[in-house]
Design brief:
The complex is a heterodimer of chains A (135) and B (291). Chain A has 135 residues and is an alpha+beta fold. Chain A folds into 2 domains: 81 residues, ATP Synthase, domain 1; 42 residues. Helix content of chain A is 27%, strand content 41%. Chain A has 2 helices and 9 strands; from the N terminus they run βββββββββαα. The longest helix of chain A has 21 residues. Chain A is globular. Chain B has 291 residues and is an alpha/beta fold. Chain B has 2 domains: 58 residues, ATP synthase, gamma subunit, helix hairpin domain (Helix Hairpins), CATH 1.10.287; 215 residues, 3-Layer(aba) Sandwich (Pyruvate Kinase, Chain: A, domain 1). Chain B is built from 6 helices and 6 strands. A 5-stranded mixed β-sheet of chain B has the order 3-2-1-4-5, with helices on both faces. Chain B is elongated and about 115 Å long. The chains are: A alpha+beta (135), B alpha/beta (291).
């Protein structure tokens, strides 16, 4: 029984992490879930949130905004945008929040709900990190 | 026969040209390294993305409920050509090659009676295509202000294209860019992005049966637009690397040509100088003999 699994976190611009992890908490679209070794194969989309990676070197946190996670032999998270929590400053956050808010305001009726949820998800991330969320 | 002074001036001017091309070559080499790194960094994402999408597309693709982005509109009457070129010139045949491919394709489609629409990315391609296809242009994306290509640039382009697709402006979209092989070889490539075509990944992924959360269809609908952005992003990065590679070899050639020209001019200069001296000597000697 393997007690670690290969974990990869990649964004379109770079690969952020590739290591042996013991457990990873994923902010799935339908709710948070924790992937551990030998998890059943699963593909889920992500909502904006915090990804927590536990490994023998300790715990690391990343902020992700959308994308998807694939749990198979190992776990790959393909995030649209991903940053280590330490790099998420107020300025970076404001930019992301403004983008989401702009998208919500231009939304068509069918997508309005989903985009409004994005905005509130992002606000929730802000609260967790102790940053200022603008409405 | 140019005078000595003219020759000297020409040599000086070719020398300063050589300095400029040499500098441009070195700048391109540095930029190429960065562009190549960026292209490499993006590869794992694109690769995995395509693997997952191929699996999804295979399981949902056949059904009628599949999203339009995958299934197509059922027609291929209106074709959108997205032509990606550079913002700057002096990079050899780079832009010309891409434009040539796009032009051939456009002519071919028109001959089949299809409607062609062109969206250009990068100034050089627009300038070259404007001549023949002025009326077919539907838009232009300006990247001249962008210092470093980011995923957000690709997202903006993708959003523009998707909005047009949703509005029913076209049925099939193809992107044109140059694939980077090495410094001397860049292959102009046409790739269809809508409806999406994914190469089936062989073997390895096939075994596992995934659970999908939410449903397969919902994930597919969420991911397809991202797939368009991902493909555009990798095309942009490939193009960036190709551009710098093409510029580097073009400037290398220019530097070498300038060097040859300087050698030739220097020989000519020395010969003329020698002729002048000989002439003067003859005049002095014959003057002395006449006395």
């Amino acid at each position: 029984m393997a007690d670690t699994m290969q974990f990869d976190l990649v964004s379109p611009e770079r690969s952020l992490a590739s290591l042996q992890a013991t457990a990873v908490q994923i902010p799935g679209a339908d709710g948070d879930l924790t992937a551990m070794p030998n998890h059943a194969p699963l593909i889920t989309t992500l909502r904006p949130g915090i990804l927590t990676v536990e490994s023998s070197q300790g715990t690391e946190k990343y902020v992700v905004t959308g994308g998807f996670a694939e749990i198979g032999e190992g776990l790959s998270v393909l995030a649209e945008r991903a940053l280590p929590v330490a790099e998420v400053t107020q300025a970076v956050f404001d930019e992301v929040a403004a983008e989401a808010a702009a998208a919500r305001d231009n939304a068509t009726p069918e997508t309005a709900d989903a985009l409004a949820k994005q905005v509130s998800d992002i606000a929730a991330v802000a609260a967790e990190l102790g940053l200022q969320a603008k409405a | 026969m140019p005078s000595l002074k003219d020759l000297k001036n020409r040599i000086e001017s070719v020398k300063s040209t050589r300095k400029i091309t040499k500098a441009m070559q070195m700048v391109a080499a540095a930029k190429l390294r960065r562009a190549q790194e960026a292209a490499e960094e993006s590869r794992p994402y694109a690769k995995r993305f395509n693997a997952v999408m191929a699996g999804l597309a295979a399981s949902v693709g056949g059904s009628d409920s599949a999203p339009k982005l995958l299934r197509g509109t059922g027609s291929d009457q209106v074709q959108l050509l997205v032509v990606m070129t550079s913002e700057r010139g002096l990079c050899g045949g780079f832009n010309t090659n891409i434009v040539k491919l796009a032009r051939t394709k456009a002519a071919e489609l028109k001959a089949q009676g299809k409607t062609v629409k062109i969206l250009s990315v990068g100034k050089k391609g627009r300038d070259q295509l404007k001549r023949d296809f002025e009326d077919d242009f539907v838009g232009h994306v300006d990247l001249s202000e962008v210092k470093r290509l980011g995923y957000s640039n690709a997202q903006d382009i993708a959003r523009d294209i998707l909005n047009r697709f949703d509005a029913g402006e076209f049925d099939v979209a193809t992107i044109f860019y140059a694939e980077f092989v090495n410094v001397v070889t860049q292959i102009p490539t046409a790739q269809q992005i809508i409806p999406a075509a994914f190469e089936a990944s062989e073997g390895s992924e096939g075994g596992a049966i995934y659970d999908y959360e939410p449903s397969e269809e919902a994930i597919l609908a969420d991911l397809l637009p991202r797939g368009v952005a991902t493909q555009i992003f990798s095309a942009l990065l490939e193009n960036g690397a190709s551009e710098q590679g093409a510029r580097m070899s073009a400037m290398d050639n220019a530097t070498r040509n300038a060097g040859e020209m300087i050698d030739k001019l220097t020989i000519q200069f020395n010969r003329s100088r020698q002729a002048v001296i000989t002439n003067e000597l003859i005049e002095i000697i014959s003057g002395a003999e006449a006395l």
